[in-house]
Hints:
Elements lengths: L1 H28 L1 H12 L13 H7 L7 H18 L7 H19 L27 H16 L4 H39 L6 E6 L6 E7 L3 E8 L10 E4 L12 H10 L3 E6 L2 E11 L10 E6 L20 H11 L14
Antiparallel strand pairs: 1-2, 2-3, 3-4, 5-6, 6-7
Helix pairs in contact: 1-2, 1-6, 1-7, 2-5, 3-8, 4-5, 6-7
Amino acid sequence: MIRTLYQMDSLTHLALGACMGEGFAGKKLGKKAMLWGALAQSIPDIDFLAAFWMDTPSALLAHRGFTHSYLFCAVITPLLAFSAEKWHRPHNIGLKKWLLFFGGVIFIHLFIDAFNNYGVGWYEPFSHHRVCFHSIYVADPFFSIAPGLACLAMIYFRKNPVKRRRSWQIGLAISGLYLVYCLINKAKIDFDARQIFEKQEIVYDRYFTTPAPLQNWLWFIVAGDQNGYHVGFRSLFDKEKYIDFQYFPRNDHLLDSLRDHVEVQKLIRFSQDYYSVEQWHDTLVFNDLRFGQMLGWEQPRGRFVFHYFLNHPDDNTLVVQRGRFKGWNYDVVKGLITRIIGIRPTPPKESSDN
Length: 354
């Protein structure tokens, strides 16, 4: 299932790029325009190769790092533009148009990736700051379906330029409108969350909200400080101004003997300071809270999806989405839908104590 998530994300970029390529030069280059668009939209994700030789913390930072930066965009754009201009000679597409096309398609990839909770290193290597809007789940089928269907339609209507044009226009328009819709949802959740923090006397100096898996109506909310974090869920359809927060201490003292380790420093940097540490029997565990909990809307004390075994580094395969869909079945999906529509698994507590 985790592999499917990343494949969905990659297929979304391919579909978006194909639609952009068709819009740019479909009449002149035919299917080759779709291929160029798909290549340009996907090329920043070449950073997945880093996982083959880097340790896990380094690979986490490399993903969506330099290859998702403005500098990378500026370097790779002319290389693709000169290659395409030379490859398709003779043609009537000027080099400037190729530059604008490839630059625009790659930038859109960098921009879209900033909408989910992983973060994007736009300013690498000059700054390690990661841009993150926390507005859409990494693999949201409601965002992906339109460009995917548009690509299928363009292949089916390969001899009908009018329907091909309508297909890519509709596919891109729906995806763009959905991103706007996600931003509106986030603004509403953030507004409600701040009111609830005040009402429930939640002490915090930082917070974030991000969608729960595969949709944009149920949101995961984290607020806290250097001592620990309050964690909970809120649906856009919840009527009560209340969140059943669970408190997770940060437990920084558990890192006292490891804080100087490069591995730990990289994990802290990757987490953007949203982390907690736990002791599971003989295993020290580093949690990155940004990626949510396993079935947290049903199991408030559920483990965090991102948990890294500090004293068993060889067991950290797929650490970003470890166990994300463990235990999912029909009842879990039904429970998620029930929670989305505003029905809580348990009545709200009268006390705000955590």
